[in-house]
Amino acid sequence: MVKLQMTMTQLKPILSHLDAIRSTPGKFKADKYSPLFRFRLLSVPKLTLWSILFLILILLFFLFSPPTTPNPSRRALQTTSWGGSTWEHRVRISARTVSKTRRTVLVTGAAGFVGFHVSAALKRRGDGVVGLDNFNAYYDIGLKEGRKALLEKSGVFIVEGDINDGALLRKLFDIVAFTHVMHLAAQAGVRYAMQNPSSYIHSNIAGFVNLLEVCKSATIQPAIIWASSSSVYGLNSEVPFSEKDRTDQPASLYAATKKADEGIAHAYNHIYGLSITGLRFFTVYGPWGRPDMAYFFFTRDILKGKPIMIYEGSDHGTVARDFTYIDDVVKGCLRALDTAKKSTGSGGKRKGSAQLRIYNLGNTSPVPVSELVSKLEKLLKVKAKKKVVTMPRNGDVMYTHANISLAQKELGYKPTTDLETGLKKFVKWYLKYYDSKKKKSAW
Ligand SMILES: O=C(O)[C@H]1O[C@H](OP(=O)(O)OP(=O)(O)OC[C@H]2O[C@@H](n3ccc(=O)[nH]c3=O)[C@H](O)[C@@H]2O)[C@H](O)[C@@H](O)[C@@H]1O
Predict the structure, then answer these.
(1) Which CATH architecture does the domain made up of 77-286+324-365+401-417 adopt?
(2) ipTM, 2 decimals?
(3) What is the pTM of this model?
């Protein structure tokens, strides 16, 4: 008892600062020095006190101990794995440009499908490139790690972090005066939005705003090029889809977030003078692609002898997509970056009007999903177990077809890969990639 009372005397000056903390209005707050308070503390048995301390220690141990094996779900929850002089040095080296144009590009989603290919292309031509990716577990992290390893070989460092981490983004802008941001990080996939709607709000809305906030506050504001989606056309019935067509009837939450981003981009351009270019991608496919997309999991399931579902309209109408090959999309991204004008603001203040653009990047040649499957069967030399089913109300639309005349005129965008050629390259990569994985796991 005496001991505890002495402890209270020692604690008094430490506890006194707690008075400054406001209590929640309306809630009872005990006076720390009132007899009632002292009585409560003193009446706690010693054993209970030690047990509580012990429990807190165990809890701290679990919270701060590193995982022994990489665990994807745990990794997705990590917020910081950046900082320090070695880390800063790697960022600086990665941002070094050898091209005359002195471009330094921050590529978000660099371990993703499009981000990986765009980063590699930028680096090849001599631009400085720093990648950013949160390596979430939406699909096989092995693919993301594989892309990362290839980029690192070519000198691109991918920072592991989230676009919602403002401190990280500000730090990156402190280290490098990025001339451009190629924003390709997003929660992708149309159908998954029904399972995990909040992930779309987190990445596509909150993450996008966070990125724009940091960009607009930079002393030298970068020009921003970002990935919108063909899905913004939603239930639009004008074909081919032109940038002038209505985009106010999204069929999925994914589409709605991308449409919201187009509005957000307009506001940031208007208020802060940020130069912003949105690119509406049309079902991009190719090597190192996304396993959640139909062409990818159809390939996997056909090879495994598993049935695949081919959607059709309720009146047996054809479901078709304007499948666009990755190399064509990469060229479009680079042309958009090269033609982007500088932002006009600085430190959060607009100094004049800035460029605001939106372009379709499609292939202008829609192909029915049934034909996609026939082409895969031919290339894989395996007959698919097809189940034709009525398209469920899952966010998918019946048909996409890009009008690319604007991108052609202003960016010089011209897709050159038809579905047959593109799928051939994809299948070649797929077989090689999974074959070598199989061999490695057999070791
Ligand atoms: O162009 C776009 O904006 C979008 O393209 C793709 O979305 P999607 O066109 O739906 O591509 P897939 O998911 O690969 O579907 C391709 C086609 O296969 C059909 N499908 C899908 C799944 C299935 O089991 N069966 C089936 O017939 C779909 O209805 C669709 O017509 C991407 O997944 C989106 O992230 C992207 O933004």
Answers:
(1) 3-Layer(aba) Sandwich (3.40)
(2) 0.99
(3) 0.84
